[in-house]
Amino acid sequence: MDSVAEVLGDAVTAEVRGAWTEVYWLFATLLAAEEARLYQVAGHAPAAGFRPWRVTERREEAEDVVSFVLRPADGGKAAPHRPGQYVSVAVDLPGGLRQPRQYTLSRAADGVSMQITVRRVRGRGGAPDGAVSTYLHREVSAGDELLAGTPFGDVVLDDGPDPLVLVSAGIGITPIAAMLDHLAAVQPGRRVIALHADRRPAVHALRVQTAQAAGRMTDLHRVTWYEEPDAPGDGLVMAGCIDLGALTVRIPAKVFGPDLWQQAG
């Protein structure tokens, strides 16, 4: 409020300051209560902080994209997670600065491990490279340890019977990859349309994993758009940006309004 008063000057009267201070603490109390509820649901004590995980596999997925498979370094169980959730990872950078970052869990839960997939952020136009993503790419290998928290997030897959339309672009495929992995295991017959856009096949992350999931599903329709289609892709591949009008499968009306349909050919 001191900063607000400095910027707005005389507009911040005692009455205004008191009202905004009250609103601030109302919101703070609500958010603190919600945070406490999330910790309780997860069975995780706030004081526990980060847990050490050992990298059991480092896998090169695409240009500047690496997956890390992690298992609890203490030999305990991996926390359960739902497809679409993320985990916080903290690394100690040179100089002693600890930096946390959030990464989507890119594979379905198996009870013993979890997987994150990291795209290296390269600085452009004078901007610096991403500190944490660069560190993970350069310094972390199988056998090393990382600090990670408990999975969280409420943008998750609904296990109901309704058809699904999953749309992703670039590294945004990570939650979709986890959802497809989960569906292939528990609902292989569910009707799914998976649409993805990327620059070119060489930078398309998690292609092998999503192709393996697709092979276990019986009603999955995959379409990929590449801005530069310089090599074969998986499933139906088109050039350019996502174009719903070019689809040869029906999208449920409740997803995008009226059904979109184009006859093959």
TrEMBL record:
Q: What PANTHER family does its record include?
A: FLAVOHEMOPROTEIN (PTHR43396:SF3)
Which residue ranges traverse the bilayer? Answer: none
**PROSITE patterns linked:** FAD_FR (PS51384)
Task: Tell me if Coiled coil is a UniProt keyword of this record.
Answer: no
Keyword S-adenosyl-L-methionine listed? The answer is no
- Source taxonomy lineage? Bacteria, Bacillati, Actinomycetota, Actinomycetes, Streptosporangiales
Q: Tell me which UniProt keywords the record has, alphabetically.
A: Heme, Iron, Metal-binding, Oxygen transport, Transport
- What is the protein's name according to its record? FAD-binding FR-type domain-containing protein
Domain FAD-binding FR-type spans what residues? 48-158
